[in-house]
């Protein structure tokens, strides 16, 4: 059965300040959706709510129809959801192998071994640097390591928060090709948060555009690309 991750009428506030105001979206296992919008639109907050890193004020986060709102963040991998955080957040004083093993901590030794082989096949550069400290890797290699660490948990859904941030265009292309392969070869559903709109819409089949914490536009990626509401959302104009 194809799994579905759904957000339904989600509200999240930081004290008196609303971060997300009634967002609804869904992603099925095996598809990539893009979550777009200007800084402060609510993209990262949405991902954190799905992971249980921030608590929803109201609304629901559903996995296969079951409400998992309020579940603690450390249980997300067991539910089949993994996060690649903004800024990568790898363990800089740990080796590549140690970083990856942290990602597979909920899995058996045999499962970790199989996942390592898959990650090294996806990112051969990591297999060449197993004993190297994470902090000595290039920005692109660190992003590969962050994605690889998430894959070690054998997720059904992966949430990618600004994976192209700070990377050279050629490296961005490599990372996005990896996202495509994860989706195609492993059948993993992905929510891709990106400032790089063109890249995101090339990879995703559908897109949601957030503006001031609300969904301003939701449609097929090709339709969103041509819609003036996309430009308006990035200029901070009303929708």
How many domain units?
A: 1
- Over all CA atoms, what is the radius of gyration? 17 Å
Individual helix count: 10
| Gross CATH architecture | 3-Layer(aba) Sandwich
Q: The CATH topology is what?
A: Rossmann fold
Low-confidence stretches: none
Question: Quick gist of this model?
Answer:
The chain has 10 helices and 10 strands.
Question: Can you give a write-up of this model?
Answer:
- This protein is of the alpha/beta class.
- The chain has one domain (4-235): P-loop containing nucleotide triphosphate hydrolases (Rossmann fold).
- The protein contains ten helices and ten strands.
- It has helices at 43-51, 76-79, 96-103, 109-122, 124-127, 139-151, 169-186, 197-203, 221-226, 228-235, and strands spanning 4-14, 17-28, 32-36, 58-63, 66-67, 81-84, 157-161, 189-193, 206-211, 214-220.
- The strands form two sheets. The protein has a six-stranded mixed β-sheet with strand order 6-7-8-3-9-10, sandwiched between helices. A four-stranded antiparallel β-sheet has the order 2-1-4-5, covered by helices on one side.
- Helix 3 (96-103) runs parallel beside helix 6.
- The longest helix is centred in the last third of the chain and has 18 residues, at 169-186.
- The termini are far apart.
- The relative contact order is 0.19.
- The model has no long low-confidence stretch (mean pLDDT 91).
Which secondary structure elements does this structure contain, and how are they paired or packed?
Layout: E1 4-14, E2 17-28, E3 32-36, H1 43-51, E4 58-63, E5 66-67, H2 76-79, E6 81-84, H3 96-103, H4 109-122, H5 124-127, H6 139-151, E7 157-161, H7 169-186, E8 189-193, H8 197-203, E9 206-211, E10 214-220, H9 221-226, H10 228-235
Parallel strand pairs: 3-8, 3-9, 6-7, 7-8
Antiparallel strand pairs: 1-2, 1-4, 4-5, 9-10
């Amino acid at each position: 059965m194809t799994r579905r991750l759904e957000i339904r009428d989600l509200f999240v506030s930081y004290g008196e300040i609303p971060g997300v105001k009634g967002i609804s979206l869904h992603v099925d296992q095996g598809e990539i959706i893009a979550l777009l919008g200007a800084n402060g639109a609510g993209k990262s907050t949405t991902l954190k709510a799905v992971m249980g890193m921030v608590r929803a004020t109201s609304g629901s986060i559903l996995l296969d129809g079951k409400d998992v709102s309020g579940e603690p963040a450390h249980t997300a991998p067991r539910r089949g959801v993994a996060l690649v955080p903004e800024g990568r957040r790898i363990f800089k004083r740990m080796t590549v192998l140690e970083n990856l093993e942290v990602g597979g901590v909920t899995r058996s030794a045999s499962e970790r071994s199989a996942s390592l082989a898959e990650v090294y096949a996806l990112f051969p550069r990591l297999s060449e640097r197993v004993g190297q400290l994470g902090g000595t890797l290039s920005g692109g290699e660190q992003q590969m390591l962050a994605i690889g660490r998430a894959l070690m948990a054998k997720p059904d859904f992966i949430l990618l928060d600004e994976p192209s941030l700070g990377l050279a265009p050629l490296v961005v292309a490599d990372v996005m090709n990896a996202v495509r392969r994860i989706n195609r070869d492993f059948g993993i559903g992905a929510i891709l948060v990106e400032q790089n709109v063109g890249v995101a819409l090339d990879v995703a089949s559908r897109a949601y555009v957030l503006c001031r914490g609300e969904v301003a536009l939701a449609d097929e990626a090709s339709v969103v690309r041509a819609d003036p509401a996309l430009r308006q959302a990035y200029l901070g104009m009303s929708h």
